[in-house]
Design goal:
Layout lengths: L1 H7 L11 E2 L7 H8 L12 E6 L3 E6 L4 E6 L4 E5 L4 E2 L8 E7 L3 E7 L5 E4 L5 E6 L1 E14 L5 E13 H5 L6 E8 L4 E4 L2 H8 L4 E2 L8 E6 L2 E6 L4 E6 L7 E5 L2 E10 L8 E3 L2 E11 L5 E4 L3 E9 L8 E10 L2 E2 L4 E5 L5 E6 L6 E4 L2 E4 L4 E3 L5 E4 L3 E5 L4 E5 L4 E5 L4 E10 L6 E6 L4 E5 L3 E5 L3 E5 L2 E6 L5 E7 L4 E7 L8 E5 L2 E10 L2 E8 L4
Antiparallel strand pairs: 1-28, 2-46, 3-4, 4-5, 5-6, 7-8, 8-9, 9-10, 11-12, 12-13, 13-14, 15-16, 16-17, 17-18, 19-20, 20-22, 21-22, 22-23, 24-25, 25-26, 25-27, 27-28, 29-30, 30-31, 31-32, 33-34, 34-35, 35-36, 36-37, 37-38, 38-39, 40-41, 41-42, 42-43, 44-45, 45-46
Length: 531
């Protein structure tokens, strides 16, 4: 084992310099890389709130996988119980016929119809979506749109579309249903109607805010391969053709649109830029000022294979990153290289074959999955890691499985947790659940060693452990956190290990389980959403 660890931690220094930076640019390559990697160093906190539901005045006759229970009282009246709010969704009634409506996003709606043919629709939180009444049309649907934030990351925004047409209106000759649209706020678990006034705000999502490209106060809209530029007063400033016939490569950054195109020439033409596989080509590269339309020709000694906007330290796309092939004495070199360039086409960093977008930041260093190396902030290779890895950028650690056991290594290569665990969860607030090679479980602390746990157990969610005792009746169990604090205690009459079912919807992630003890059943809902 010691030999294996020493081999693992062996530092392998290479003699070549990986990165060549242009001295004219005051650029920290390490900061640029981190700015452009889609990572977060803020540890998301699981809610880990436990909802306990126990009923004395009615019984559960059906359990859904959507957090809703169909319940019935002693007189045979029915209703629905929300595990999310721990309340009845509507009063008990013997008249109600209940229908469940399933929609995308893991959402469930409850439709009731009484003996007078009056309908109503509710959501999982007990909110009234359609008021009780007589309808020719009473429908609810859910849809979503992909919305990009300022960093370019996309997310889904969900909407409810509520369509109604009352019998009263139909009798008046009205045949067009009323349609209302509601934006579902996931964080606040709320819904807001989108009116004509708010619709204009959402239409702005069709435009691209050009602040990130160095053009604060300007917006762009692409229609039929044409980029239209507007100021903050929605006045048209310029238009730029994006037709593929005009370029091989195009990329917008630094307030410019850089375009490059190669033209095949006949073999007698002497006005060529480079030769590739015996053919002559003319290379033309130019930039177009997005605001003014001014075209500037660039003389570059490389062809571009791919290019994407690249953020500076302020989060503005003032650079571009991609793969190029250099031209030397009018011959196109075969080996591509990855570079960062400015809006003038000047190479400010050459990282050779290292793919910057695939790096994983860990502490002050970077990990390259392709080569297996850890690189320092100057992109010098430090050491090689062999094994399956999990990175924890909040704690600046690397969880490694060496083929036999799990261990933990710091970003500088030092060993934090020995390779002696057959199981090891991800760390939360510096602690994890580990199964030692002797088969016993421990709370593993990065700073204070480990704490033994007694009894059969399993991790039900990040930071929550279910530990139970099946040597007595009724059987007892505790839900504890990584600090060994009891979050909830319960009793149940089955020796089998309980199972938790997942409930996932647009509002979060939950675990659901029921525990029967004599004639009493406890229904547990645990909110494990990371926020």
């Amino acid at each position: 084992m010691i030999k294996k660890i020493l081999m693992f931690l062996l530092l392998i220094f290479l003699s070549f310099q990986l990165v060549a930076c242009d001295k004219g640019e005051d650029v920290s390559l390490s900061e640029l890389i981190r700015k452009n990697l889609s990572t977060t160093t803020t540890e998301l906190e699981p809610v880990n709130k436990i909802f306990v539901n126990e009923f004395e005045d009615f019984e559960v006759v059906w359990e859904s996988n959507y957090g809703i229970l169909l319940v019935e009282d002693d007189e045979g009246n029915n209703s629905c119980w929300s595990l999310f709010t721990q309340k009845l969704i509507f009063p008990f009634s013997e008249e109600n016929q209940i229908n469940f409506i399933y929609k995308i996003g893991g959402l469930l709606y409850i439709e009731t119809t009484n003996s007078d043919d009056e309908k109503a629709i509710y959501d999982i939180f007990g909110r009234t979506i359609i008021e009780k009444g007589k309808y020719e049309i009473a429908e609810v649907d859910v849809d979503f749109e992909l919305v990009a934030d300022e960093s370019g990351e996309t997310r889904r925004e969900y909407y409810e579309i509520v369509k109604t047409l009352t019998i009263e209106d139909l009798n008046k000759g009205i045949t067009t249903p009323t349609i209302k649209k509601f934006l579902l706020n996931v964080e606040e678990e709320s819904r807001v109607e989108i009116t004509e006034e708010t619709e204009e705000e959402y239409k702005r999502k069709e435009t691209i805010e050009l602040k990130m490209f160095g053009l604060d106060g300007y917006y762009g809209r692409v229609v039929n391969f044409m980029l239209f530029i507007y100021n903050e007063n929605n006045e048209l400033i310029n238009r730029v053709s994006l037709s593929g016939a005009d370029f091989d490569i195009a990329c917008a950054f630094g307030g410019k649109l850089l375009m490059q195109k190669s033209y095949l020439l006949d073999e007698e033409n002497e006005k060529y830029s480079y030769i590739n596989q015996g053919n002559k080509y003319l290379l033309e590269t130019f930039t177009i000022d997005i605001l003014t339309g001014k075209k500037t020709k660039l003389k570059l000694d490389y062809i571009i294979h791919n290019l994407s906007p690249y953020q500076n330290e302020k989060g503005e796309y003032s650079y571009a990153y991609g793969a190029i092939r250099r031209i030397d004495s009018k011959n196109l070199l075969t080996a591509p290289t990855n570079v960062i360039i400015n809006e003038k086409g000047k190479i400010i960093a050459d990282v050779h074959q290292l793919e910057l977008t695939e790096l994983t930041p860990i502490g002050n260093h970077f990990y390259d999955e392709f080569s297996g190396y850890i690189y320092n902030s100057d992109l010098d290779p430090l050491y090689l890691i062999n094994g399956n890895l999990v990175f924890d950028d909040c704690n600046d650690i690397i969880i490694v499985h060496d083929g036999d056991y799990y261990g933990v290594v710091a970003d500088d290569g030092s060993l934090l947790i020995p390779f002696e665990y057959v199981e090891l969860s991800e760390f939360y607030q510096g602690k994890a659940l580990g199964k030692y090679r002797d088969g016993k479980y421990y709370i593993v602390d990065l700073n204070r060693g480990s704490t033994a746990l007694n009894g059969p157990l399993f991790e039900i969610a990040t930071g929550l452990i279910f530990i139970y005792r099946n040597d007595s009746s009724p059987y007892q169990a505790d839900i504890i956190d990584y600090n060994n604090n009891i979050k909830h205690s319960l009793e149940f009459d089955s020796p089998a290990s309980p199972s938790f079912n997942s409930i996932n919807n647009i509002y979060g992630n939950y675990l659901y389980a029921s525990f029967k003890n004599n004639n009493q059943t406890s229904y547990l809902l645990i909110d494990i959403t990371l926020r």
